[in-house]
Amino acid sequence: MIAAEMILDSNQVVVLDVRTPEQFRGPEGHIGGALSAPFDSIERQLPELLPYQNQTVLVYGETSNDGALAARLLTVAGFRNVVHINGGMQAWIERGYRVVNSR
């Protein structure tokens, strides 16, 4: 199942955007319902994210690298079902999926 279908099919899915706050609020926008959890501070945010530990967590960044690293970190921290959105925000937009702009 692809990430877009997972988001539509379940309200048990948590989406984490690990880009910078500026990117999250910027012109590219973000995936609807995503929580901003910047990669450079995600370790400090772990206590806030723990309630989602047993849910499916979709993680994306600007590219595949930052999202994959964040997904690995969450898995090591005990999150049970972490899914990395391959290609990050760039691939999401290129595939024509919806984004939300904060402006």
List keywords for this structure.
103 residues; alpha/beta; Oxidized Rhodanese, domain 1; 4 strands; 39% helix; globular
**Count of DSSP H/I helices:** 5
* Mean pLDDT over all positions: 88
CATH superfamily: Rhodanese-like domain
Low-pLDDT runs: none
CATH topology: Oxidized Rhodanese, domain 1
Major sheet details: 4 strands, parallel
The first-level CATH class name: Alpha Beta
Overall number of structural domains: 1
The percent range for strand residues is 15-25%
Oligomer: single chain
Radius of gyration: 12 Å
**Which term fits the overall shape?**
globular
Distance between the ends:
31 Å
CATH architecture group name: 3-Layer(aba) Sandwich
Can you give the helix content as a percent range?
25-40%
Strand order of the largest sheet: 2-1-3-4
Topology as H/E string? Answer: HEHEHEHEH
Structural class: alpha/beta
Beta strand count: 4
Structure explained in plain terms:
- By secondary structure, the chain is α/β, with parallel strands linked by helices.
- The chain has a single domain (3-94), classed as Rhodanese-like domain (Oxidized Rhodanese, domain 1), CATH 3.40.250.10.
- Helix content is 39%, strand content 16%.
- The protein contains five helices and four strands.
- It has helices at 3-9, 21-25, 42-49, 64-76, 88-94, and strands spanning 13-17, 35-36, 56-60, 81-84.
- Strands 2-1-3-4 form a four-stranded parallel beta sheet, with helices on both faces.
- The N and C termini lie far apart (31 Å).
- The mean pLDDT is 88.
